[in-house]
Amino acid sequence: MTGSKILLVDDEIVFTKNISKLLKYRGFKVTAVNSGDAAIQELEKSSYDVIVLDLKMPGMDGITTLKEIQKLGLFSQTLILTGHGSVDSAMDAIKLGAYDYLVKPCEIDELVNKINGAWERKEDIISLG
User: CA nearest 126: which of 14, 63, 65, 47?
Assistant: First the structure.
């Protein structure tokens, strides 16, 4: 949803800069970080509607980061980004509570649609709780 706060987590700096610009152009409020550790630090300071999380990162990988995010007990939804070879890992992330996944590289419109779906799920969960 336009105006949603998005945390973009990916170790590819050029990718995060480009996607951030495209999402901001579409009205999202985007913060980009380049590691799982940085994501956790950011989530401890501020709340986000949707977290877009890459699975394959050096250091704390996406699955470990997702588990740490869940320990924080946030009302955020997590969307997983994965390379072609790790769809099984993306499915594991969904079993751990991620909203959905996208295979990189992805079209910006597809990413926006998934972010909007994750935002709607977050709102549904809040309204039921």
Answer: 47
Please give the Cα distance from 60 to 12 (Å, whole number): 14
Please state, in angstroms and as integers, the Cα–Cα distance from residue 13 to each residue in 19, 20, 97, following that order. Answer: 10, 10, 26
CATH number at residue 15: 3.40.50.2300
Handedness of CA 36, 42, 47, 52 (dihedral sign): negative
Alpha carbon 58 to its chain centroid, in Å, reads 17
Distance, in Å, from the CA atom of 53 to the CA atom of 64, rounded to the nearest integer, reads 11
Read off the pLDDT of residues 16-60 as tens digits, 9 standing for 90 and up: 999 999 999 999 999 999 999 999 999 999 999 999 999 999 999
54 forms beta bridges with 81
Answer yes or no: is 127 within a domain: no
Q: In terms of residue numbers, what domain contains 58? A: 5-111
Domain contains 119: no
| Sign of the CA dihedral running 92, 120, 11, 38 | negative
